[in-house]
Amino acid sequence: MKLTKKSHACIRLEKDGRMLVIDPGGFSEEDAAVGADAILVTHEHPDHFDEGRLRAGLEANPGAELWTLKSVSDQIAAAFPGRVHTVGHGDTFTAAGFDIQVHGELHAVIHPDIPRITNVGYLVDGGRVFHPGDALTVPDQPVETLMLPVMAPWNKIAEVIEYVREVKPQRAYDIHDALLTDLARPIYDRQIGGLGGAEHLRLTPGTSAEL
Fold first, then answer.
1. pTM across the whole model
2. What pLDDT is attached to residue 204?
3. Cβ within 8 Å of residue 40, ≥6 positions away
4. Sites in the chain below the pLDDT cut of 70
């Protein structure tokens, strides 16, 4: 499986000539979803769900389909009849040849005065990759590669470190990093890598790794 990092929280996974894209949001490249055979979206926040980017991906490939939660599917399903699927915690499905399990229900707490929205994470191919969206969801099975929301308005580095410890992946790749400046990256690398208990890695947007 080939993992390609796109900007912020978006990733591409490729296997057997097919491509799965997760969270092509407004901080990601305009063509982040173009070329996808399947697209997954974790929640409705604009840095994860951008309608223009989704439309570009679905229009470029008439066979491409989207799986997401109701708050997103309600906004785009009418434009792509039969190609948008609503999912929730506990659901399983196959998308572009990848086996997907859905984990989680709510976005992390940003502030007690801000109502929590729904959020789901996607476990790919029996734990080879887990993308949690904007939550620190711990799947009920082992994870090889954790896509780690490293910096967000709703988290702090202590929580990020504890999340890696709880999931116990073989490796953790940074995502949700558009707001993290280059000045701060060495601090995050040292503390997460030294305390998380798993290999801590980063890909610059556009680069790939074999999993």
1. 0.97
2. 96
3. 20, 21, 22, 23, 66, 67, 68, 95, 100, 122, 131
4. none
